Amino acid sequence: RKEYVDLYVNYVFNESVQKPFQHFMRGFLRGCPARNWKMFLPVELQVVLQGHTTVDWHLLEKNVVYRLYNKSDKTIKDFWNVFYELPEEKKKMFLGFLSGSDRIPGYRLECFRFSIVDPQAKNPDELYPSAMTCSLIFCLPR
């Protein structure tokens, strides 16, 4: 029985996916040659490919650029007060809303910046917060 289970597991996890994996690997290495990856330690390569899984939320707040807002504005203070009360999962959902990913890209966390912008609507109560993911801009009506 053990031999059967071992052979079956080997087939499912190795042999059955070998051909599709070879196609994937050939395409991946065409765009990202292996010699470029050898400079990374395994843990560094994981961060480069997957991004940071943990976030220093206070550092994120520190790096925000405010446009048509000041850090001392009531809307901004209220936003951060509500943000810090959120559970970790909801904070990551905000990051996904803002950037399209719930992780910070592989470069240093200190370099990740986004902007909070006042859309200057005539009636801000008619607007919902929105995000421009490519530009990392969060539009927050007053």
TrEMBL record:
Tell me which residues make up the HECT domain. 1-142
- Active site as annotated: 134 (glycyl thioester intermediate)
ATP-binding found in the keyword field = no
Catalytic activity line of the entry:
S-ubiquitinyl-[E2 ubiquitin-conjugating enzyme]-L-cysteine + [acceptor protein]-L-lysine = [E2 ubiquitin-conjugating enzyme]-L-cysteine + N(6)-ubiquitinyl-[acceptor protein]-L-lysine
Which Pfam families does the record cross-reference, listed alphabetically?
HECT
The record, for PROSITE patterns, names: HECT (PS50237)
Entry keyword Transcription = no
Q: Which InterPro entries does this UniProt record tie to the protein?
A: E3A/B/C-like, HECT_dom, Hect_E3_ubiquitin_ligase
What GO molecular functions are on record for this protein?
ligase activity; ubiquitin protein ligase activity
The top EC class, named as a word, is transferase
The protein's UniProt keywords, in alphabetical order, are: Ligase, Transferase, Ubl conjugation pathway
Give EC number(s), comma-separated: 2.3.2.26
GO term, biological process aspect, one = protein polyubiquitination
Supply the PANTHER family for this chain: HECT-TYPE E3 UBIQUITIN TRANSFERASE, UBIQUITIN-PROTEIN LIGASE E3C
The name of this protein is HECT-type E3 ubiquitin transferase
Species whose genome carries this gene: Piprites chloris
- Gene coding for it: Herc4
